[in-house]
Predict the structure.
Amino acid sequence: MNGSDPTRPIVFTIYSALGLHNLGLAACFLVLYVSGVCVNLLLVVVVCVEPHLHRPMYVLLVNLALCGVMGSSSVCPNIIKHLVSSRQEASLQACLTQVFFTNVYGTSIFCLLALMAYDRYVSICKPLLYHAIMTPARLRGMLLALYFILSLFSALQVYLTSSLRLCRRAVDKLLCDSLVIANLACTRTTVVSAYGLSCAVGFIVFPCLLVILSYLHIFSVTLKSPRASQRRALKTCTPHLLTFINFTVATLFGVIYNRLNNNVPNPINVFLCLSFFVFPPLLHPIIYGIKMQEIQKSIIRIMKSRMMM
């Protein structure tokens, strides 16, 4: 797989530098991670058990929640293990596996947000055609194609990264990503960087443009509508807009995290990791749970039915 010894582990030097704060950080990561998994799974359960929520918007919301769980689960257990362990190292294969899932996580969230924006666009701008366009079969086809394409491109990036010959094994980051492994290579290669940039444009920048274009159409239509229609449109779009802004900012922090050199303060290192892999999966279901009355009512209805049993 690699020109250097593939059995030599990758060593994460940052954990020893954190010193006495390790246990406190481990508790923080654990609480945030478990909370994020619980609220996401609660949202998934509510949508699955409530038949009136089996609509495209909520199906996409379930996929958003599951992707959030995948993203945080791909990094948090390893970070917690390294924080409480005396040995902070991982095999190259484990690092490459983490690269695969973190890439799928980041790109799938943006693509799902683009699909959700398209769903809102059709619902508001073409309401009479909504059920003809957003059919269950078409939605399943789009989701299957999305996950297949993202997995394929992520697997190719892992393959390109695994072909690098590594001359160093020390990483001053909390986790592995393709750029971190590329920086350990004996020689700089433009192939991995160019491929990563093209994936970022195709699966991050392009979906962002689709979201922006969708909302430009939505706002142009709603501004010409009666005030009551404007309020309804704003009510249904606000959770998605907040989620999109939240994850875009988190991604910006993630890009900064990847591009910064090793000489960054440890608190910034920790915060940038939290801002991309922990906070968004925790906040997204909370945003939808607070802003969408149907989800609130469904949660209350389920809780009441459980209490009466």
